[in-house]
Amino acid sequence: MSTLVLIGLLIITLGMAAMIILLWVRLSKVTSIAQRTQQEIERQEKAAEKQIAEQKAAQETQPAPREEKTIRLPKPSLAPDARLEGVSYTYNGIPGVMGAIIADRFGQPISVDSDLALDKVFISAHLVELYSMAKQEKPSIGRLKNAILMGEGSYWVISELVGIYLGLWFEKEVPTDSALELFEDFKFSVANSLKNYYTKIW
Questions:
Q1: Is residue 197 within 8 Å of 189, Cβ to Cβ?
Q2: N or C: which end of the chain has fewer CB within 10 A?
Q3: How far is CA 133 from CA 41, 49, 128, 172, in A?
């Protein structure tokens, strides 16, 4: 009888030992998984911090955005039936501007039977067409056409932008290269104004 009791106690002891071992193995696995998870989280956090630091450093080293200097023409306030005369009158106070915004109230470019406003002077649009087609080819948009001499001491530089003729007046004392450079800046400024105020022609 005592032998059976001893055997039973031994079996119970071995069973408890096995349960303890299994529980220890299980807890070890859980702890290992938790440690690996924590290590992965820390690794990702370090990588994110490094990436943020690199982005900040790159932003600090980037040059400041360049501000484009453009001539901002005022938006004309025209009556519903206003045409070239009204546009010319609106821009009379801007020296050197000829045909800056040549469009009717519908935003369409001038037609061949209308007059082109050169600052305060009106000339026939047919004359401008003859100048623009002088090379016997259809000019591309924004292409320089001619430097039209207007007597002694001054000249006009005329170009075309989306079917709209525009130009700038210069004294002959201004070097031609400088005048053309200034005119290109003026032309792009007019293009920006047209995009802002006269979107129908684009």
A1: no
A2: N
A3: 72, 63, 9, 25
